């Protein structure tokens, strides 16, 4: 399903399907990412299971529910346990990856409909992109930062081991929660703007300026240090000009907190309803095509119909999941449209008003 594949423009590709170990440095305004293969889940094999395929199907479906609902406790919710037990009826594909791990695909519409029937929230594939800065102290005199590229030379073996472990954990949690992440390149431009001390000391003004080139929706800063048992992490989130300390001291706590936050903003409950959209400044056929192409890729929209276009004003009717505020947030993620300002209208009221972005090209 190509329209649901990763549409963010990455200058350096990643081997991971979840953690984007690359900088978003291409031309254009690229704010959000579409989580790739959202309905395909890879799980470790259960050697103790008498029916390994059935065990993998249920484990994969349980993980999928966490991704789709935005609820980290979805896999143990009594309301959803019957769905997990019937995982095979939602299955679209089954196989093994190169490491021999079961990889299970599920039918998106069938899964979404089951959750909608239960009045459970559903999160689409469009997810905000989070840039993660990590500064780590290995407790033995070594320090370093995690980057999208190979680890810097001169790091102690203990620091290399710690940063590798952090990368592995971030990848796993990103995949589990369906949260696209990016790491900084730590190239000359980054290192001239931000030092280890800046990240360790939480100098968010400098980090915020250095992060602007990556055009992420949020910036997450982690400081990893030795703890009583293992390592402790202090998490700080920068978003929309707000600085927020996040709870928890574990490696996954910061990612979970960000995923929870985005879920409350973007997950929708219930089926689609009719919403009117107005897009301003649509003055050329290229503008018209760009807007329609973008809208047709969004999972929150089930249909898009044009009412009229006159004087640069494009009027549309869309069948969309969620209320006006959720729709406004999702449509603004792609960098193609920007809200025209003012409060989001209530259902049945005035249309949502956007302007086509002129700051860059669409994905």
What would a concise description of this structure say?
The chain has 363 residues and is an alpha+beta fold. Helix content is 30%, strand content 26%. It contains 10 helices and 17 strands.
What does this molecule look like?
With 363 residues, the protein is α+β, with helices and mostly antiparallel strands. It folds into 3 domains: 12-21 and 126-266, 3-Layer(aba) Sandwich (Rossmann fold); 40-117, no CATH class; 272-356, 2-Layer Sandwich (Alpha-Beta Plaits). The chain is 30% helix and 26% strand. The chain contains 10 helices and 17 strands. It has helices at residues 52-69, 81-85, 108-117, 157-177, 188-193, 196-201, 204-211, 253-266, 285-297, 324-332, and strands at residues 19-20, 32-34, 40-42, 91-96, 102-106, 126-128, 130-137, 143-145, 181-182, 218-226, 231-239, 242-246, 272-280, 301-310, 313-321, 337-339, 352-356. The two termini are 16 Å apart. 40% of the residues are buried.
Features:
five-stranded mixed β-sheet; 10 helices; disordered N terminus; alpha+beta; Rossmann fold; single chain; 30% helix; Alpha-Beta Plaits; 363 residues; 3 domains; seven-stranded mixed β-sheet
């Amino acid at each position: 399903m190509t329209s649901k594949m990763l549409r963010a423009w990455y200058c350096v590709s990643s081997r991971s399907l979840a953690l984007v170990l690359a900088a978003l440095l291409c031309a254009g305004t690229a704010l959000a990412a579409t989580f790739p293969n959202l309905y395909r889940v890879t799980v470790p094999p259960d050697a103790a299971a008498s029916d390994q395929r059935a065990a993998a199907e249920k484990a994969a479906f349980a993980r999928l529910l966490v991704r789709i609902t935005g609820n980290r406790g979805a896999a143990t919710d009594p309301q959803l346990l019957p769905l997990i037990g019937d995982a095979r009826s939602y299955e679209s594909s089954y196989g093994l990856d190169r490491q021999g791990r079961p990889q299970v695909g599920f039918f998106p519409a069938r899964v979404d409909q089951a959750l909608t029937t239960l009045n459970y929230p559903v999160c689409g594939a469009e997810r905000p992109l989070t840039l993660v800065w990590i500064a780590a102290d290995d407790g033995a005199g070594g320090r370093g930062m995690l980057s999208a590229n190979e680890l810097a030379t001169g790091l102690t073996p203990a620091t290399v081991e710690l940063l590798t472990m952090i990368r592995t954990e971030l990848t796993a949690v990103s995949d589990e929660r369906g949260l696209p992440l990016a790491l900084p390149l730590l190239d000359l431009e980054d290192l001239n703007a931000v030092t280890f001390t800046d990240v360790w000391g939480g100098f968010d003004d400098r980090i915020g300026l250095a992060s602007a080139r990556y055009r992420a929706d949020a910036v997450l800063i982690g400081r990893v240090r030795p703890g009583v048992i293992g390592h402790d992490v202090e998490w700080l989130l920068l978003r929309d000009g707000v600085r927020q300390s996040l709870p928890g001291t574990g490696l996954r706590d910061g990612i979970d907190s960000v995923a929870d936050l985005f879920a409350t903003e973007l997950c929708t409950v219930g089926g689609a309803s009719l919403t009117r959209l107005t897009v301003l400044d649509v003055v050329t056929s290229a503008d018209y095509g760009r807007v329609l192409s973008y809208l047709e890729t969004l999972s929150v929209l089930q249909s898009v119909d044009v009412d009229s276009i006159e004087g640069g004003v494009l009027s549309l009717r869309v069948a969309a999941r969620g209320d006006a505020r959720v729709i406004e947030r999702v449509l603004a993620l792609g960098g193609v449209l920007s809200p025209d300002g003012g409060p989001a209208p209530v259902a049945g009221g005035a249309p949502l008003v956007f302007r086509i972005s002129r700051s860059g090209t669409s994905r």
